[in-house]
Amino acid sequence: MLGVKSQWDLIAKKIADETSRNVIAFDARCHGESPNLGELSYESMADDITKLTQFLKIDKFSLLGHSIGGKTAMTVALKYPELLDKLVVVDVTPVEKWLDPQAIKGYYLAVHSILSNPNTSRLSLPEVKQLVINALTKLDCEILTRDFLTTYLGDGDRRVVWTGKPSLDIIIENIEELIGFRSHFSI
Questions:
Q1: Predicted local distance difference test score (pLDDT) of residue 111
Q2: Among 4, 55, 65, 158, which has the highest number of CB atoms less than 10 A from its own CB?
Q3: A Gene Ontology molecular-function term (predicted)?
Q4: Cβ-proximal residues to 99 (8 Å cutoff; 6+ apart), any chain
Q5: Pairwise CA distance, residues 41 & 184, whole Å
Q6: Does residue 187 have a pLDDT over 50?
Q7: If residue 111 lies in a helix (H) or strand (E), which one and from where to where?
Q8: Residue 160, strand partner residues
Q9: Class of the CATH-defined domain 5-90
Q10: Contact 164, 156 (CB under 8 A)
Q11: What are phi and psi of 171, to 5 degrees?
Q12: What are the structural domain ranges in the chain?
């Protein structure tokens, strides 16, 4: 959910070298260098991909997506099958029955609550991270998820802030959509 294109640099270069194909890595909306556009749905991200390929004058392409990018790639395949040559989906399925959207939303709400608390503004980064870890532990959040979420805490202007993109507000607002995969498309 918080991945950025630069994490794919080595893989993109390897694919380009091995296949002699042009490879374009890009940040989805509300990720990395892309703007926070508010709406974060698979349909809007799929439309962004088609707009990018139209702008680049690419008629047919192969698409690789990981996690949210994988579900976005599936949406492109369902909505615009005529555009795809090949589809590669990594580490995600259309239905994630083992994920509880409300529990995950609760994790992000807990982080948001701690960061927006005026009393937190006087605490150091390690102190805020410990508060977040304690809150997530009470919510039965797995240690890997706790560690992952605390990596997006950093020093801001006189307080600890969320450094990840998308913002906590956008994640919280769209979490059900992002964890689920409500296909509105007929195959």
A1: 97
A2: 65
A3: carboxylic ester hydrolase activity
A4: 179
A5: 12
A6: no
A7: helix 101-116
A8: 155
A9: alpha beta
A10: no
A11: -60, -50
A12: 5-90, 101-173
Q: Is the pLDDT confidence value at 185 over 60?
A: no
**Residues, the chain, total?**
187
Question: What's the pLDDT tens digit per position in 98-141?
Answer: 678 889 999 999 999 999 999 998 899 999 999 999 999 999 99
Contacts of 107 (CB under 8 A, 6+ apart): 136, 139, 141, 145, 149
Q: Which two tokens stand for residue 97?
A: 């029955």
Question: What is the Cα–Cα distance from 34 to 30, expressed in whole angstroms?
Answer: 6
For position 186, what pLDDT does the model report?
47
Residue carrying structure tokens 């640099």: 9
DSSP of 123-175 = S-HHHHHHHHHHHHHHTT--HHHHHHHHTTEEE-SSSEEE--SS-HHHHHHHH
Burial class from Cβ neighbours inside 10 Å (0-12, 13-18, 19+) for residue 165 reads buried
- pLDDT, averaged across the chain: 89
Provide the token pair at 164: 């990840």
Question: What's residue 154's pLDDT?
Answer: 93
